[in-house]
Every structure is written in C-alpha cells, then in structure tokens.
Amino acid sequence: MKRILTHSASLAVAATLLISVFGPPPASLAAPDEASERPTARRGGITRLELISQGVAFEGRRFGTVGSYEKLRGRAFGELDPNDPRNAVITDLKRAPRNDRGMVEYASDVYILKPTDLRRGNHQLFMEVNNRGQKFFGSLNGSPLMNDPTTAADAGDAYVLDQGFSLVWSGWDPSAAAVNDNLTLSVPVATKRNGASITGPSYEYLVFDDAATTTATLSYPAATTKRSKATLTVRDRLADKPRTVPDSGWEYVGDKQIRLLPGGTPFQQGAIYEFSYTAKDPLVAGIGFAATRDLVSFLRHERVDAAGNRNPLAGHAERAFAFAVSQPARYLNDFLWLGFNADARGRPVFDGIENWIGGGTGVALNYRFSQPPRTERIRQNHWYPEGPFPFSYTSFRDPVTGKRDGRGEACRRTGTCPKIVNLNSSNEYWSKAGSLLHTDPSGRRDAKEPANVRTYLLSSVEHTVVGNPADSPGVCAVARNTIDPGPVQRALFQALTRWVADGTPPPVSRVPRLDNGTFARVRPTKKSYLGVGVVKQRDLGWPSIPGVTYTGAATVRNLYDFGPRFGNGIIDRYPPAATGRIYPSYVPVVDADGHEIAGIRMPQIQAPIATHTGWNVRSDAFGGPDGCEGWGMTIPLPETAKERRAAKDPRRSLVERYRTHDGYVRAVTKAARTLQRQGLLLKRDADAFIAEAKASDVLR
Hints:
- The protein has 700 residues and is of the alpha+beta class.
- The chain has 15 helices and 27 strands.
- 18% of the residues lie in helices and 20% in strands.
C-alpha cells in the first residue's frame, strides 16, 4: 500500500492503552509507590474497563508450582488521537466521529486468566490473538476448544498454564459476532465531513454447503435497495462462466440481506454466488491493530490507568508472547508490517510470536469496507485484498511494481522486531501461495531469512486446529487429515521462549526449497485470473492412488487492480480487475507415498499407516472436483501385498513396511525420538506417540 510504505518509518505506536480494574487489587501484587499510582495526563488510551466478573478459574484446579488461576472478564473503552502520526496508517481514522476531546472512541472485550498469586507465575504474558472472536489455543495447550474455559477438565493437559503464563485475549475484529462468548471490538463508522454516509463498492462471495439456506447476509448495508444497482451471479464450478441472476430472481430483505425469488427458494448447494453492490457506512476497522498494541503495552509497563485503577498484571509481564491460529496469524503478519509492534515509547510490544497457518498473507483489516473474516483458498475468496505484496519477512523489490518492502521493514527501522516462528501446514502452500513467505517474489530463488525469523512446514498436514476423525469427509470427497499439529506447536513454542529469554537459537528452518528440488511449480493457466493454477502430477511426484481424484489445482497470487486509491486503503473497484501479472508460487514435492519430502515429518509421516495430504477435492454434491478449501486427506494404506495388488495401489502395504506390530512400534519410536532430539517434539509428546503405537491394533 502506497500510504503504508510512505509512513512506515514513523509508525511507533499511539498513546498507551490503559486498563482500569475495579475493586481491591489481588494481594499477590506488589504495592506500587504513591507516585506510581498517581494518574498522569495521556493523549489516548483506555478511559475505563467495566469489569464484568472476577473469580476462581478451573474450579480451583492447581497447576504445577503455580497454583490456582483466576479469571477476569471485562470491556475496555478506549480512544485514539486521529492527529497522532503514529495512527496515520489507520484507514479512515480521520473520518471517524470524535468526542469533545477530539478523540476517536472504541470498545474491546478483555479476558484474562492469570495465576492467583502472580509471584508464583513466570512473569510472562501469553496473548492468543483470537480467531473471529474465538479462542483456538487448545491445540497448543492440550485442552478442548471453548470460549469460556471454566471447569477443571477445561484446562486439559494445561501446557501453557503449568508454566505460569498470564493468558490474555482481547477484541480486535469488528466483524466478530457477539455470540457464544466471542471477543468483540466496537469501532465507529467513517463518515464524510458533513456527517453524510460514505458509500463505495462492496463484494460478497457466497457459498452455502447445504440445501436449506434462503437468505444471505451482507457485510455492510446497501446504499440503495434498487436491484438495478447491484448484480448477483451464480456458477456451479469455479472455472464456469458466471450466470447473471435476473432482477426478477432475487430481492433485498432490508438493506443487509438478499434472498432468491420466489420467497423461500434455497440457494443452490455448493454453488458459487457473487454479489456486487454499493455499500454504505464503512467501519474504521484498522483500529483493531491499535487496540492490541496498546493493551499489551499497558499490561507490560504501567501500574495504573488514567483514572488511577491498577493494572491486574502490574510488574508481572516482563515479556510478552503472541500465539495465533490461521486468521489472527495473518493479522499478526500485518501487525508487524504496519509497524504496530512499537509502542508509544518505542518499546517492543511482543518479544516473540508463534504463527500457526498464517502463510505469507495478511488479514485485509485496514481497508474501507473491510471484511476480515474472508480468507482465500483454492476455491474461495480469491478477489479480496488479503495478499498484496509484500509476502515475506525478507525485504524484496516487487518485480511487478518495482517497490521494495518486507513484513519486517517497519520493526527493523524502530528496533522492535520480535522473534518469530512461522509454522505452516501443507495447505498454506496449496491454498495460499505460501511459498512466497520464503522465496523471492520473482520465483527465482530462496529467500535469505532474517535473523529473527524461523519458518517451518508441518509436512502433509491440512489447515487445521486439531486432528479430525478419519471418518469425517464433510463436504470433501475423501476423509479429512487426522494429524494434530499440537505436539510440534508446543516444542516450537518452548524453543521460542528460550530464544527470547537467553538467545538459544531454535531448530533451523525446515521448508521446501528451490535449490534442492523439493518444490514443484504451480503453473498458470488461462483461468488463473480466477486465482488458481495447476501442479502437474509428474512435477509433484503424486502416486496414482485408487479412489483419489488428482486435479493439481492450487492458488496463484495475482496482482489485482482494486483502483487508484488502493494504496490509501480505499477500494474503488470491487471485484478487482485481473492485470495478468502473477507472482510465481510452488508446492512441496512428495515421495512415493504422497507425503511431502521437506519440512517437519511427524511420526505419522515417517511411520505411516495412511497417506496424509494438505489438499482435498469437494464431493460431487458440493461442487466437486473443485478444491476443498483448507482440508486435506487421510487415505489408509493397504494392509497386505495381496490387498495392494488387488486394488492396484502403488503404495507399499503395512506388512511390507513393518512385518509385525512390533516392527511398527519400532518405526514410530525411531521417528519420535529423532524429532525429540532435534527439538521438534517434547519428551511428553514423543512418549505419547510411542504409547499410542503400542496400544494400536496396527498389524495385531
């Protein structure tokens, strides 16, 4: 973005975001001196936090030497100075309504789990950046996924809690629905100087994987409900020519919904509908970056807020780590790129970041008529501004536009770069052109990684939160990938905390590379303006497995034309126009089993009983054989050579590999212990893999 590049050198951070916690402070907090408790005049920050509840967490369950935890829930009300140059990057901030102090107001949900006695904690803050308002840290923590963990069982294996972290969540996504304990962010609507509504083009990509949905909700209200001012199209497959639905075939229901006619007609299951219309009242969504930035800075450095209320973590957040799954990992990519990791005094906000399945793309938050829930994959949402250059933390010159940039440029200029662990699944390469995270954007060479960054492929794993049952294909043609990423997430998070604490380097990056032949090119086609190319089967090395349709479809990264003001965060052309310029991308080459050769190969890949992939295709009932979004496959191996020959399966059978159950256990043990020695599994998880193999019925 032009404006982002222009101001990136001056992006420190807006005034400190402050929390006020009502009621007496916990006895475990060291009492600050009188001067430190005195509120000081600040330009911006949190004006108050309305505490909803505070009490014992997890039914008083105790964690290691840390003891019990307590839960605090509240809503923070804050404000930003639109004239502060540190906020200049936020699109439309100067068009937001202001209070009598000339400030822009917003409100964010806050949720904290902290040791009851902070002195027994590890004095470190762990922020999970939530996903569409939801908590997804369960895979790392070894616990169930839920938004309000309450019972002792809800803590699960308690990997994070046992270490004594103070866990923090806060709202950053203004599109997150206020349901099911989601964390939300309320931001103002941008208006013209005279208070009139701002209007502009908006676009909805609509797919309903059921035969019952009769209405579609729009992201923004329509500026006019005249059907002649909007266009609705439909197609069965991605490569089909869209068919225009006539004005007589649909209508508005209010200004934020549409439906097909006659009333009650369901949208076609699995079909792709696209709706282009003029919207009004854009949210100032980029405030979400400042909300995270300032909250973490306050929790780390301040004792009291502007009203004199104490920080609940005062003196006990010496370091701060971020963990994110999918959408918020892309948010953190942009958070760093836009310069938000420097606080108002130039201090780092986060010391370490672990991003799971963020690829090299952003979250499309800081645009007029932003739609941050959207994410591009093989068949969906290709025409949203999720992935403009730059893609990598290494700085490159854009071969298309000639601009030079990198996601780490702003923090390098301010000396606030965190240590970063990027962990991606196979699906990020197939569905999000993830190779651009660590290759030159011209596609000619591997990137030289910055010293503060490590990047890993979790080989042959889908875009997932936790493992899935093998019998759950959902809308896909083949049962989904069952591999749980949690064990590797834990090992790398432990390595990250060590890296930050004492400089001990984590395991070296493990990714496919151009220089060793472990990448296969995604080749553009005549349909690549849609966002998809193809990987030839012989290039990938994919075995022809019975019952599996190989299409080779993979995302390509287009340079789209969103209009002349796109560099300022304003989209004038929606959907955008394809320019015909494509950034070369690649996917990981596979072995004879269909497993990716490069990356971190978990025991399920080194000692397989099935082939696992990061890609899948949709079933015929849901638009197949188009790509099946973020899902992968689990394809069981034949048990015997006779079974293999009968099925004409090219993969070796279980008996040919292991001979006996004990042989299988030995293979799993070797794989698990090797990964443990390499720092890619903790002992507890290596032991669990071995125990699971022993208890299995493989070749009994």
